[in-house]
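Retro notes, item 3 of 5
We never archived the inputs for the cobalt (II) ion complex last cycle. Fixing that now. Sequence and ligand:
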Amino acid sequence: MSSSGKLTELDHVGIAVRDLDAVVEWYEKMFGATVAHRERIESDGVDEALIKVADSYIQLLTPFRDDSPLAKYMEKNGEGIHHVGYRVDSTEEVLEDVKAQGARVVDEHPRTGSRGTTVAFLHPKTAFGTLIELVQE
Ligand code: CO
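Structure as it came back at the time:
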């Protein structure tokens, strides 16, 4: 396993979609890919399907309620790549470090993500347009 500083792996690419089942079927048909995990993430108002690719995932996401942040995002931006998740050894440590260095964050403190991971989002504003998720397994 090779790594780059505090980023130990590319954990997942988060993709916003309207019809989760249709997109899962498309990945199955096109690539023979299978879903490794499905979860409703109540706090974010999203349903996810994770497709494993080597040690990383494609995280297909769809909002299940209108006031979810992803629903609002999709009203403006439609479907497509939404965020990138980088695996770290300690979400708390990296989050504190980037905050100290002036990065704007979405989550002031680490919280529980899917699969029981510990996650925190950095705001795209100070990350050159990319919504970045730190993921600690
Ligand atoms: Co994610």
